[in-house]
Amino acid sequence: MGSYQTVEKGDWLAERLKNRLSSARPSPFSTPSCAASMASWFWLALALTATTLVAADRPNIVLLYADDMGYGDVGIQNPDSKIRTPNLDQLAHDGARFTDAHSSSGMCSPSRYAMLTGRFHWRKFHDIVNSFGPPSFDAAELTLPEMLQQQGYRTACIGKWHLGWNWDAIKRQGATPDPNTGYASGDFDWNRPISGGPCDHGFDYYFGDDVPNFPPFTWFENDRVLTAPTVPLTTPPKTAEGDWEARPGPMAAGWDFSAVMPRLTERAVKWIGQQRGQSQPFFLYFPFTSPHAPIVPAPEFAGKSNAGGYGDYVEQTDATVGKVLAALAANGFAENTLVIFSSDNGPEHYAYPRIRNFQHRSSGPLRGVKRDLWEGGHRVPFIVRWPGVVPKGEVSSALISQVDLMATIATITGFKLPATAAEDSHDLVSVWKSREPSPRHTIVHNTLANGYAVRHDQWLLVDAKTGGVTKVPAWFDPAHNYAPHDQPGELYDLSRDLAQRHNLYAQHPEKVTELRALLDQVRQRGQLRNTDRASAPDQANQ
């Protein structure tokens, strides 16, 4: 793991300003920085007098985050897959694959918020950030990229943000959306900066389209749009699979949905190359827009899979992973870079007809899809590669959550988490490095405000009439041996019944009572990782 020395208490701000300032210095080879406006001799003098972070063997960190990609869409996890994922399969061979890993929610924005704060989303909100929605983060919340900035990392987010912006900062007075066509282009001053986005929550650089199926349909760089969206949304007549699912609103002229992932991939590869020769370690958060709807694989991937347009889009997603890994190798970063791959939730409801049409199960052996409290809604692919630290070819059944990344990366980089931050996050370093048991025994699953489930060891209680949130086609249950029940909830022993076919709610009332009490306890009192964390004073680097 190497040895770590953290920034002395009180000095992290100066160190962070120095790092931001260095990334803001103009260069013909550099990318514009969020922090360019911070440059001043006063801050430079302050930064240069700060205690410098010295951390031997700090890895670079690359977090690849697929969108609506199911547990069974990674070939190595699904022997019957009709989709080829050679790059993800190789990543798993070169690292560790976790088969009991979970997103916080069965939907997008909440899972992203939870992963980037180490805090279950349901402690704050349940729904996604809608079109022109406000930021999910409060200014006082410590985020993963902010933590890494404090430890001397250069940070970038390239891809889908979907965690809100302060749109009121550029909205014209009196502007309101039309119920059919949404906001008009003229409702906003596109020449002004937009606060509340990635650059205000720990990222030195941002490039992306915010949300692939929400307006405004244009490119963002840092806190501004690059091209004003001057025309209303129009879409071609058909996607490769499913519906467009594009919400109305302003669009940049000539916007091409199928060009989004290729451009994001190019930008990520370019940014990695720009880190060559830099003294700072880097953190790249690359949240993909694929294979989320609209399902629009680039032309070179059309027809390549045996699972329709979605399969083609997953193969394109895998190719993006390959290009990022190749860029790390080409620039000499492969051996000292921690690479993490996961997905924000399970596959969209198109997974049901995909079973009939192509005999491909995007959820693999799991029941359910995106939004569901059943396993298919939130048990997701999770692969970790860290050469020399994480053993190659490991397959672990340890119970883990994406919220655990915050505490794990804090340990790796030598950061002392304050007691008020990342309260649901467990340190998984020993789990990643060896076969040690997970420190996590409990996860609370949630998508909508009126439905919760609690997992404890092998037991899962759905504290609702059903674990289904997304509508299940009438043909599916009888075709796959799922029978209706008349119980007020559902109880499963996942060690014996991963597919969740046998509801044990009536047979084990004592287990139902026990798990319901545990659910209430975690929801009401929190889930601090350990007793010293619960009682210790705030010892953050502040």
> Structural class of the secondary structure composition?
alpha/beta
Number of strands: 20
In terms of DSSP E residues, the strand content is 5-15%
Total of DSSP H or I helical runs spanning 4+ residues: 13
Low-confidence stretches: 1-30, 36-56, 530-542
Give, in spatial order, the strands making up the sheet with the most strands: 9-8-7-6-12-3-13-14-4-15
The largest pleated sheet is described as: 10 strands, mixed
What is the rounded distance between the termini?
25 Å
Residues in helix, %: 10-25%
Radius of gyration: 23 Å
Shape: globular
Mean pLDDT: 89
What does this protein look like?
By secondary structure, the protein is an alpha/beta fold. The chain is 24% helix and 14% strand. The protein has 13 helices and 20 strands. The protein has helices at 12-24, 41-48, 86-93, 108-117, 144-150, 260-274, 308-330, 351-358, 405-413, 429-433, 476-479, 509-525, 531-535, and strands at residues 4-5, 54-55, 60-66, 96-98, 101-102, 154-160, 205-210, 220-221, 224-225, 231-232, 250-251, 282-287, 337-343, 382-385, 394-396, 400-401, 442-446, 452-456, 459-462, 490-493. The strands form five sheets. It has a ten-stranded mixed sheet with strand order 9-8-7-6-12-3-13-14-4-15, sandwiched between helices. A four-stranded antiparallel sheet has the order 17-18-19-20, with helices on one face. It has a two-stranded antiparallel ribbon with strand order 1-2. A hairpin with a 2-residue loop joins strand 18 (452-456) and strand 19 (459-462). Helix 1 (12-24) packs across helix 2 (41-48) and helix 6 (260-274) packs parallel to helix 7 (308-330). The longest helix is centred in the middle third of the chain and has 23 residues, at 308-330. Mean pLDDT is 89; it is low at 1-30, 36-56 and 530-542.
